[in-house]
Amino acid sequence: MAHQDFSAAKTIFITGATSGFGAATARMFAQNGWKVVGTGRREERLKELQAEFLEGQIHVVPMDLTDESSIKAAIDALPESHSTIDCLFNNGGLALGVDPVPNVSREQWRTMVDTNIMGVLDVTLNLLPHLKRAGKGASIVNVGSIAARFAYPGGNVYGATKAFTRQFSYNLRADLAGGDIRVTSLEPGMAKSEFTLVRTGSEEANEKLYEDVLPLVPQDIAEIVWFLATRPAHVNINCVEVMPVAQTPSAPTITRG
């Protein structure tokens, strides 16, 4: 594999880089000359991503967002070449279950809370010193969802975790006020990825959801993350809510009778 000097390049740290938004964002930044730290649970996929680019550009490390010790170990072991982080893309997360309360799995609820909330908190806290080292223009992009604002049957804890992501993003901005780190809550609507496949375990359900609809795709989100990370250092975009044209905010539901 060819060698290139990436010592002066900026670095993005991505959770959930094994598929979907994370993998697309890793490719977007690498193709534009950034270094990438790609993390996730599926090591084989991480290595496939790493192999697409020049040696030294992408550092990959298996990391479990539900395990604080795994997160700390991955960050503590960052090579010097990838230890100054200019952008943190808190993308890793999941939705489990489609049933309304009370027909739910407490275990699935716990997994969503541990991944979507505690995972984001632990990664952010452990990575802050690396972001501060980058100085002006460093940024954190947290993946929320329109489910934070628009409730739907079966969305219960998933939507609540994404509401947490939004408010944590705003509160983190307040805590970091006067510093160099920017924070954005990125809130996509319908997007075609492995989201429904993970949620239902059904390839058929995943395909049916997008039938006769042109949804967002991971590349759309990657381009937005690129835009956010490359604004002038004094510009902070607090929140980006994005839907495909085929999707619109719904009016509140009325139950009669």
TrEMBL record:
Which Gene Ontology molecular-function terms are recorded? oxidoreductase activity, acting on the CH-OH group of donors, NAD or NADP as acceptor
* Similarity-based family: Belongs to the short-chain dehydrogenases/reductases (SDR) family.
- Output the InterPro entries linked to this UniProt entry: NAD(P)-bd_dom_sf (IPR036291), Sc_DH/Rdtase_CS (IPR020904), SDR_fam (IPR002347)
Pfam families named among the record's database cross-references: adh_short
**What keywords appear on the UniProt entry?**
Oxidoreductase
Q: Which SUPFAM superfamilies match?
A: NAD(P)-binding Rossmann-fold domains (SSF51735)
Protein name (Swiss-Prot/TrEMBL): Sulfoacetaldehyde reductase
Quote the Gene3D superfamilies the UniProt record gives.
NAD(P)-binding Rossmann-like Domain
* Keyword field contains Oxidoreductase: yes
Upper taxonomic lineage: Bacteria, Pseudomonadati, Pseudomonadota, Alphaproteobacteria, Hyphomicrobiales
Q: Which organism is it from?
A: Maritalea myrionectae
UniProt cross-references to PROSITE patterns, sorted A to Z: ADH_SHORT (PS00061)
